[in-house]
Write a structure and sequence with these properties.
disordered C terminus; 375 residues; 11 helices; alpha/beta; nine-stranded mixed sheet; 20% strand
Length: 375
């Protein structure tokens, strides 16, 4: 009974108010309507094999700006269904940073990558300015391969939180240098302007898959030559043979960017593409026991309000109430190995990282170098 009341209260809150504070400012809400988007099928079967066996692979997917409101809108446009809504284990996460109710992507990315609250703008450092080990670095130290696949500039805040330690996200040259030192097995996204041709070639050494296909962010979803699902599929094919398993971080980066622009159709297109990538990850997890799949968001963007919709017609009507982030909780979805019993209830966003960290293999394989220290 208490749980039912709590969730009714949460949905009532989401329907009436976005917590606006910090940098966010309210604006007049102008309703927009989206209909007629191409839909994708969603398999109803969500059962995963071997949920109690040790974790070998981790797929960590982050929808930038993807709050419950964004998900609800995209689900209506896709006939009431999404891959991410089939994951069997769910939780809610609080996104406040160490200094503000309204987080930025750097502080939120650091919480999701490193498991600590920090100041807005900070990457890979705690609130006292001390470097913190990210999940990607912890995986590499255990001998696991690491992949980063994004639709933004690879030096943008969320991916950078997994490999860089800088006082402010604007220090792009330092962030790019940190990626060159880290050298994951897979790097896919934009940001080629920050690297010389020789540096880009060094990211491809030793059989690594490194493709930076735009100077900054990738084009919008409807304009991309390669979709996020295709990139995730290629990354998984590359990482799957790695002898000690892998850690793959995937970001649907431009859900946030479209919401900042007040572009409801663009935001839904980005989220639907992200969901198709979730479908690729789910299929991989079903075929590869020992895989943990976790999906969450760094924050909600633009105080989106769902006003009306019709799943049968693939239609939604919604309005943005700010151009900035909001302070509402975000969802956490999980499936696969060690997900049951762990990802549930209400937590801080740092708790998502801590649960994944506990699930990583404990061994440190001496015959594979620590990539976080490789130059």
């Amino acid at each position: 009974m208490k749980k039912s009341l709590a969730f009714r209260w949460m949905w009532s809150l989401l329907g009436t108010v976005s917590l606006i504070g910090g940098m966010a400012t309210a604006k007049e809400a102008v309703p927009c309507c989206v209909t007629g988007e191409v839909q994708h099928e969603v398999a109803r079967e969500s059962q995963m094999p071997g949920e109690t066996e040790p974790v070998r692979n981790v797929i960590y997917m982050i929808g930038d700006g993807m709050g419950l409101e964004q998900i609800s809108c995209a689900a209506l446009v896709n006939g009431g269904q999404l891959h991410l809504l089939t994951l069997p284990h769910t939780a809610l996460a609080c996104t406040v940073s160490a200094t503000q109710t309204i987080t930025d992507s750097a502080a939120a990315g650091t919480a999701l990558a490193c498991g600590c609250k920090t100041r807005n703008g900070c990457l890979g450092l705690n609130a006292a300015g001390e470097p913190q080990e990210s999940l990607a670095e912890a995986a590499a130290r255990r001998g696991m391969a690491v992949g980063l696949v994004v639709t933004s500039d690879i030096t943008d805040a969320t991916p950078a939180a997994f490999y860089a330690k800088v006082e402010h996200r604007s220090r792009t040259a330092e962030i790019a240098a940190a990626l060159l030192r880290f050298r994951p097995q897979v790097v896919m996204g934009g940001g080629s302007a920050h690297f010389t041709p020789q540096q880009q070639e060094s990211l491809r050494e030793d059989g690594r898959l490194a493709e930076l296909t735009a100077p900054g962010n990738l084009p919008a979803a409807v304009e991309r030559k390669a979709s996020l699902p295709q990139d995730v599929h290629r990354a998984l094919d590359h990482l799957a043979p790695c002898p000690n398993g892998f850690f793959l971080m995937v970001e649907g980066s431009q859900i946030d960017k479209a919401a900042h622009r007040g572009d409801l159709r663009g935001m839904i297109q980005e989220l639907l593409e992200f969901d198709r990538a979730v479908g690729v990850a789910l299929e991989f997890a079903r075929r590869h026991p020992g895989t943990l799949l976790v999906i969450t968001a760094d924050h909600q963007t633009a105080g989106l309000a769902l006003l009306n919709g019709d799943a049968a017609r693939g239609e939604v009507r919604a309005a943005f109430r700010t151009n900035e982030h909001s302070g509402t909780v975000v969802p956490v979805f999980a499936a696969g190995t060690r997900a049951a019993g762990a990802f549930r209830g209400y937590m801080q966003n740092t708790g998502v990282q801590q649960l994944i960290l506990r699930a990583l293999p404990v061994q440190n394989t001496p015959d594979q170098p620590d990539m976080s220290q490789k130059s």
